[in-house]
Amino acid sequence: MIFRGPYPEVSIPEISFTQLVLRRTQELGSKPALIEGPTGRIITYAQLADAIAQVAAGLAQRGFKKGDVFGILSPNVPEYAIIFHAVATLGGINTLVNPLYTEHEVAHQLKDAGARFLVTVPAFVEKALQAAEAAQIEELFVFGEAERATPFASLFAAGGQVPVVKINPREDLVALPYSSGTTGLPKGVMLTHYNLVANICQMEGLEYFTEDDTLICVLPLFHIYGLVVILNMGLYTGATIVTLPRFELEQFLKCIDDYGVTLAHLVPPVVLTLSKSPLVDNYDLSTLGTIFCGAAPLDENLTRACMKRLNCHIRQGYGMTETSPVTHSSPSDPSQVKFGSVGVCAPNTECKIIDLETGVPLGPNKEGEVCVRGPQVMKGYLNQAAATAQTIDAEGWLHTGDIGYGNEDNHFFIVDRAKELIKYKGFQVPPAELEAILLTHQAIADAAVIPCPDDEAGEVPKAFVVLRGEATPEEIIAFVMERVAPYKKIRSVEFIDKIPKSASGKILRRMLVERDRERA
Fold it and tell me: What's the pTM?
């Protein structure tokens, strides 16, 4: 059975992503497009369009051309939108790097993506310099000023014309975020102009918000949720977007109060904080009409508790980096929302649930793997033909690795993950990556990493370790911590005699998960 949503099909224009997103900049003119939350600095729609053109001209003078890759290693700042669309204007590809990565992780992504240039902020320059050297980056730019880096502002002063670049929307890439997919190490997700244009049009069909809204962008822009759903959908709609470099509760609440934020895109751990923290009572959040929650399932009880506390509506959504990202959303009509559900299929999107063993499509209320098909599905993984074929089948169905079901009203519920990724506060933590690091420890003979439930984070990594020498759990945790971004660190270690594996040598993590939950 194939499930579809209640929405009519939307028309998807064959244009470049920047052409779509910036369609109304002249009309909106002096309206604030971006506000830097901590400082109040404003960039209007007219200023944004001018800045993008100037930076595109500056990059072109440096020889940046269609098909080249530009790395962005930065927290949320207004300049993120400028560099992203300047690169896109020239037919370039943006690879979005997590600022929490270690220099080794940054260098790996830049090398794998084939990046020529990199931009960062002063706080991350040392890390960026080391990564840039390892990845043979031609020039490092910095928002602001820092030694051994070119000021981003110098691109504005270059002058010159923006070259006219012909974009093939269905083939040319515009974004190359990294995702672990359903398993394994991070891979470059090839998103075309058409993929992102399609998802913007699909979200418009879901009635997300209007140009009268003020959004708060605290979710990171290197994540597809922040980049497309908040920043670019916001600019396309003509809303005002308040950027925050990180989530700090009081600053977040103050910005909602100061700027009259009407819509907040969040993840479940932040919703939990808002439902419980006494600090919420110190701020006027009366303008906040809607919270949109994604990246991980949101419990029905938590949904109701937060709605009652803040007197607002909550909508949920579902998607993946590989789907640009939105495939499902709660209806805009609050009376049609089913709590605990990620909603119905977006326009132009098909969904089916298949049996985990046989692959046979299932009917309503039967749990299986969620598969989706639509124009927002990625072109594939960069230089990873086998992984692409494993994820997208011959009929164009993307196998999400998530277990869920659709009910008789075509509302979907995500109940578990067949894939092995750990979701820490919405971030992906690949067990295979942590296991590979553990196995480099001289005292470890074998290792397996599983998710453990956590009230605040959703899930945290736990390691099962087979020793061949002496080591304490604390030493092992510290060993891994030195080599990964903070959100990936292992929270606990249990020593075990043998890691359960299949006949082919695949780690049977489900057995370890069941064993751990039985004990708990």
Answer: 0.86
